[in-house]
Amino acid sequence: MDKLPENQTDGATFILLGFSEYPDLQVTLFLVFLTIYTVTVLGNLGMIIIIRKNPKLHTPMYFFLSHLSFVDFCYSTVVTPKLLENLIVEIRTISFTGCITQFFFACVSVVTETFMLAVMAYDRFVAVCNPLLYTVVMSQKLCSLLVGVSYSWGIACSLTLTYFLLELSFRGSNIINNFVCEHAAIVAVSCSDPYINQMLILVSATFNEISSLMIILTSYIFIFVTVMKMPSAGGRQKAFSTCASHLTAITIFHGTILFLYCVPNSKSSWLMVKVASVFYTVVIPMLNPLIYSLRNKDVKETVRKLFKI
Q: Nearest 5°: phi and psi at 175?
């Protein structure tokens, strides 16, 4: 019987460089990211509470939005606390288990959000193109199914990618030139052949991005055609206004993803990758509740009642 290879991963650690090359900015960055994280937590948890409190918001659109807020809260909580810690400590290490765990939950969050936004596009399509059948088509059963599928697919993708990451071997300290344990960085510092993992992430990311964008684009093409056929300008404006917040969230989310894909893998682009990663993992979870709350009268009314303004 052949001797099994020795497990090289035991005791391996990762060093997250983050923004360590800017020592004078550590305190400033800490305060900025702490503020963003505080707003993110209050905004997303607040949105969930507001939706639960106001019966007017017990609709499919806000049911999906409450889950989007929950995913954003989880995503930010997986990434930001470690980022804040690394800005105030000199030894920026994270254990192998901690790194893989962070990747797993971050992956679940981002894939789930990708398809949650696609589900919300379908919801807007039904609302605008089939308003009389909206409550029948978007039943509680279908809404729960769509949300469940989004979470399940996110978990399935993350489990698959994590399983193959665990098959890799690592030795000693591994330097990651980022503030988060992302897939490509983990694979890059392993001692194993990266081919399978690189192919998996390429296929998975490409499929998720293309399929979700196809759902979104198809939905909005039908929405645009339907709206342009409306006889009154007021009706067109009202229809577009119901989609404006969602379109803004989609543009920011997918625009950042596509930007990261397009950034060349070179030493000159590392800062752009970090900035885009910050926007993607830290800023976007803060923006979504702001985007939806600032444009919505029912949300503003509920906030005023809660705080008795």
A: -90, 125
- Please tell me the CATH code under which domain 13-307 is placed: 1.20.1070.10
Write out the H or E segment, with its range, that includes residue 174. Answer: strand 173-176
The string of DSSP codes covering 65-117 is HHHHHHHHHHHHHHHHHHHHHHHH-S--EEEHHHHHHHHHHHHHHHHHHHHHH
**3 state SS of 176:** strand
DSSP 19-60: TTT-GGGHHHHHHHHHHHHHHHHHHHHHHHHHHHH-GGG-SH
Q: What's the CA angle centered on 248, arms 242 and 251, to 5 degrees?
A: 135
CB 121 within 8 A of CB 150: no
Report CA 188 to chain centroid distance, whole Å.
23
Does pTM top 0.85 for this prediction?
yes
Q: What is the pLDDT along the chain (309 residues), one digit of tens a residue?
A: 344 344 456 677 899 988 888 888 899 999 999 999 999 999 999 999 988 888 888 899 999 999 999 999 999 999 999 999 999 988 889 999 999 999 999 999 999 999 999 999 999 999 999 989 999 999 999 999 999 999 999 999 999 999 999 999 988 788 888 889 989 889 989 998 989 999 999 999 999 999 999 999 999 999 999 988 888 777 778 777 778 888 888 988 888 888 776 665 544 466 777 787 888 888 899 988 888 776 666 677 776 776 665
Compute the distance between CA of residue 286 and CA of residue 279 in angstroms, rounded to an integer: 10
Give the domain ranges of the chain.
13-307
d(CA 106, CA 290): 22
